[in-house]
Fold:
Amino acid sequence: MKVTYIHHSSFLVELEKVLLLFDYFQGNIPELDPEKDLLVFASHRHGDHFSPVIFDLVKRHPHTLFVLSDDIWQNKVPVELYGKAVFVDPGKVLELPEGGGTRIAAYKSTDEGVAFVVENGGKTVYHAGDLNDWRWMGEDKAWNNNMTAMYRQELGRMREDGVHPDVAMVVLDSRQEDWFHYGFHEFMEQIGAEHVFPMHFWGDYGIAGRLKAMECSEGYREKVLEIREEGQVFEV
Structure:
């Protein structure tokens, strides 16, 4: 499959029969194969994960469906596109005909909205949205411990469901300082993926390299892809 990094937490994943666009709000979208269905995902309503500009994609791609977290207000969708949008809440599973048959499972974020697990053509793709172990130096111990417990609970649900993605996009945010890698590390330890991309790193392109240099990443560091610029394309 081909994965293009667009901006922040936005990626275009090209599978054999379907295109998956995640959490777009700005950046350059590559040319889209007009023969393939396009599924456009928005994990939640935050401005760095969702923008109504996504609805303009129907002008350049005829076969588009929008898969939106249910915290996004329906009035953000143009009336004429109501039939091209589906809303999901945590725990929901969709079976769609697009791409010859696509299964989408939504997991509860530890912030807003959902994370997505998408299956098509024997491939599985995970996009975390804002599902992460959001521990912060400024928060008290009880708050941080509760955050970790919620995150591990959701990873436990994925593990029970047998989730093991071919490609995963997982939060790696240096604003968390010494704890920047906790959520990413826990995901790789508990769920794992064949190829994993950092996201939500606010232009800090060296962050994946710093994680890979840490002893804790020894068991999975070869699976971590290092993004160096917007528009970078990976064949995995």
About this structure: The radius of gyration is 17 Å. The chain has a mean pLDDT of 97. The chain is about 15% helix and 30% strand.
